[in-house]
Design brief:
The chain is 8% helix and 37% strand. Strands 4-11-9-6 form a 4-stranded antiparallel sheet, with no helix packed on it. The protein has 156 residues and is mainly beta. It folds into 2 domains: 47 residues, no CATH class; 82 residues, OB fold (Dihydrolipoamide Acetyltransferase, E2P) (Beta Barrel). The relative contact order is 0.18.
Length: 156
């Protein structure tokens, strides 16, 4: 699915009376949901794509990717919450608000953990499991890649 198609979809949704649309095309799923006018008007887009076969890519220059960015292997009793898209990680809904979650918090499946901004669209990332937040793997306002681990959760 190309970006022009996604943008035209967003334009059509914003001009219509629809509040939510979900589209599945192969292993790509897109869900667009409008908030009510009482809330800050914005659209949310959630992307989910099944993992593809690993692709060979040119190795990054050592100076471009410090070793600190590569998290150690997750303990076997934890689940990783990964970024479904490329974008910018935000731990809170705005700079004045507290973080959605912090280490030690108990969360439920579906709780909002963070926001990943992509193309000026704020995407709320929800927990896929219930449990305790063991570690936050990225800093606020840090760029994140597709499938990059964001949180370690100890399931309960």
């Amino acid at each position: 699915m190309d970006l022009k198609l996604i943008q035209s979809l967003l334009d059509m949704i914003s001009e219509s009376d629809l509040n939510e649309v979900a589209i599945e095309e192969g292993n790509l799923k897109i869900k667009v949901k409008k908030q009510s006018e009482a809330a800050a008007p914005r659209e949310q887009v959630y992307y989910a794509q099944a993992p593809a076969a690993p692709q060979a890519s040119a190795p990054a220059a050592p100076a471009a990717q410090p070793a600190a960015e590569k998290p150690a292997a997750a303990p076997s009793n934890t689940e990783e919450i990964k970024s479904p898209i490329v974008g910018t990680f935000y731990a809170a809904p705005n700079p004045e608000s507290p973080d959605f979650v912090k280490v030690g918090d108990t969360i439920k499946k579906g709780d909002v953990l963070c926001i990943v901004e992509a193309m000026k669209i704020m995407n709320e990332i929800e927990s896929e499991v219930s449990g305790k937040v063991v570690k936050v793997l990225v800093s606020d306002a840090q760029p994140v890649e597709f499938d990059q681990p964001l949180f370690l959760i100890e399931p309960n």
